[in-house]
UniProtKB/TrEMBL annotation:
This is Cell division protein FtsI/penicillin-binding protein 2. GO terms for molecular function: penicillin binding; peptidoglycan L,D-transpeptidase activity. Residues 118-284 form the Penicillin-binding protein dimerisation domain. InterPro entries: Beta-lactam/transpept, Beta-lactam/transpept-like, PBP_dimer, PBP_dimer_sf, PCN-bd_Tpept. It is found in: Membrane. Belongs to the transpeptidase family. The keyword RNA-binding does not apply. Residues 321-592 form the Penicillin-binding protein transpeptidase domain. The lineage of its organism: Bacteria, Bacillati, Actinomycetota, Actinomycetes, Propionibacteriales.
Length: 599
């Protein structure tokens, strides 16, 4: 019996003996027709058999019961059938009939499994507004049943050119797909599918356009790297999660959609039926009801998010803007520039430049300094043979003995570097942690909270004090830094409702420290590099600019930053390449705060 059960599991019958010289190749073809799409959807079955028992009065006929088990997401579909055996000479042979596969089958009938689509959970705001929900799209692709496989790649290149994807890559995918496959090129929001574009696609042989729905935000850009996308499961996902998905199932492929796929996705229903020779359903053999997914609530503010994305549209380099509500750490905005290659808003990792002086300033306050304390700001400062300078735009009037508040306002690098002997690495790291920086934790979404590792020497430690060296930050964590100053306590960013990871072992920000910091960083706006924010309407703004040098392709370039807070709103803006924090990132912060005030 094992030869038959093995053949039924594999679909290859070359080692099975059948009566009346039945050709194993014909059996394989018949078996493929009878099982319909089950192998393609459910994979191979597990088949076991009982010991044959004799039938009738003779000893040359017997029957065996076959137990079939097809794998389904979260379970198995099992049933029994029978196979007859006949003895010819000294050899037992099998009788091949459609009922061997399932009792309800006959010639011209086949098994068919169909997914009954469930409703995917929506992504909602804390106010209950729908942010991401099923919206109508047109899925454009190549249906290889409509075209000669040899001509399909050329048609794919034509389709790709119309929908705006890489023609070479898409043609390669189409060529590699099976002869009966539909290969998706792109799903386009229905309002964006113009008649001109539809007419062009319709003229391409093999091209097809399917009307469907996909979970999408209110706009194409809406927090897309953070929220993520939904699409057909990949072979890799099916292999990694056996028994979870069926081919063609929709699942979260990135971002929150992937992280919370188990909650959002729910479970599709399934229906296994016997089809007639014209594809009509003759009998239902097995069915399960779909289970809808559950919604996910996030803190994003739709109005502010769209405002931020509108502001970043005019920025050519990669960029990001994050806004947090300091009172509770809620992430209101996580916006990425249109041309970003990755999610810089919550997971970017770049030197924060002078915005990190917020931590250095706190460390100095803990050493006994205050806003009015005198510090030295020379034109140059040398540490272990390395010369540090102020930025080229630093005013000469700010050199010499100045207050700590003035040094921060005009962003004197040499004053901070000069404190390297007074403030050790552990003290800087502790001050940074009090402002929410460098506290690694699982926040429930893709996030990076910065690093300030042990420096390799005195020069690197001095560079750390001005946000260079090995210090790395994301816009998310820098929004938390200025938010902590504004709130007077360590701000812990949170995006998903119910996912707040409180840090432990962090020295709290003392009320007096917070007061001093707010005074100092208010001076950045009234008397320093953040003057562009001085006339923003509403409550007083505190801020800090930042510029961090880096090398790329043999050129010395600069990342530009600005962090600011006003009322219960903290914001960080990062631009990958720019002139300086004040002139490149500053206007973006100003535009955002002005929009935020328009209620």
């Amino acid at each position: 019996m094992s030869t038959l059960t093995t053949a039924l599991e594999s679909g290859t019958f070359t080692k099975v003996d059948f009566v009346a010289k039945t050709d194993p190749a014909d059996v394989a073809d018949d078996y493929s027709d009878l099982t319909g799409n089950l192998f393609g959807k459910l994979g191979a079955p597990d088949v076991s058999a009982t010991k044959p028992t004799f039938t009738g009065h003779g000893t040359d006929s017997a029957k065996s019961t076959l137990t079939w088990a097809w794998g389904l997401p979260g379970g198995r579909w099992t049933y029994e059938s029978e196979v007859e055996l006949r003895k010819t000479g000294e050899k037992w042979q099998f009788v091949w009939e459609p009922t061997v596969v399932a009792p309800a089958l006959a010639e011209g009938r086949s098994l068919h499994v169909e997914t009954v689509q469930q409703q995917r959970g929506e992504i909602l705001s804390t106010s209950g507004a729908t942010l991401v929900a099923d919206r109508p799209v047109v899925t454009v692709g190549i249906d290889k049943t409509l075209i000669d496989p040899i001509a399909a790649p050329a048609a794919a290149r034509d389709v790709a050119a119309i929908v705006g994807i890489n023609p070479k890559r898409y043609a390669k995918r189409v060529k590699a797909a099976g002869d009966k496959a539909f290969v998706e090129a792109l799903s386009v929001r229905k309002p964006m599918m113009t008649k001109a574009k539809t007419d062009k696609i319709a003229k391409i042989k093999g091209a097809a356009m399917l009307n469907r729905t996909l979970p999408l935000g209110p706009t194409k850009e809406f927090a897309s790297p953070v929220v993520g996308i939904v699409g057909e499961v990949t072979a890799e996902m099916m292999k990694k999660n056996p028994g979870t998905y069926l081919p063609g199932d929709l699942a979260g492929l990135s971002g929150l959609q992937a992280r919370y796929d188990g909650q959002l996705r729910g479970k599709p229903g399934l229906q296994v039926a016997v089809l007639g020779d014209e594809g009509e359903v003759l009998k239902k053999l097995y069915s399960t009801d779909p289970i809808d997914g559950k919604s996910l609530t996030v803190t994003l503010d739709a109005r502010l998010q769209k405002s931020a994305e509108k502001i970043l549209k005019r920025v050519e380099p990669e960029s990001a803007l994050v806004a947090i509500r300091p009172s509770d750490g809620a992430v209101l905005v996580a916006a990425n520039g249109a041309d970003n290659k990755m999610n810089l808003a919550t997971y970017g990792q770049s030197a924060p430049g002078s915005t990190f002086k917020a931590a250095t300033t706190l460390a100095l306050l803990r050493k006994g300094l205050n806003a009015k304390s005198q510090v030295s700001c020379p034109a140059k400062a040398t540490v272990d043979g390395k010369t540090f300078k102020n930025d080229s735009w630093y005013p000469k009037s700010g050199l010499g003995e100045i207050t700590l508040a003035h040094a921060v306002a005009e962003s004197c690098n040499t004053a901070m570097v000069g404190a390297a002997d007074e403030v050790g690495h552990a003290e800087i790291a502790s001050a940074a942690a009090s402002l929410g920086f460098g506290i690694d934790r699982d926040a429930g979404f893709t996030s990076y909270f910065g690093q300030i590792p042990e420096p390799a020497g005195e020069t690197e430690h001095a560079a750390d004090l001005i946000g260079q060296g090995k210090v790395l930050a994301s816009p998310l964590v820098m929004a938390a830094v200025i938010g902590s100053i504004q709130a007077g306590q360590t701000v812990v960013p949170n995006l998903v409702q119910g996912q707040v990871a409180k840090p432990s072992g962090v020295e709290p920000l003392a009320p007096a420290e917070a007061d001093q910091l707010r005074t100092i960083f208010r001076g950045v706006v009234t008397d320093g590099t953040g003057r562009g924010l001085a006339d923003v309407p509403g409550k007083p703004v505190i801020a800090k600019t930042g510029t961090a040098e880096f090398d790329r392709n043999g050129k010395r370039l600069t990342h530009t930053w600005m962090i600011a807070a006003q009322g219960d709103l903290a914001v960080a803006v990062y631009v990958d390449e720019g002139e300086n924090g004040a002139s490149t990132s500053g206007p973006l912060v100003e535009a955002f705060l002005r929009m935020a005030n328009e209620r």
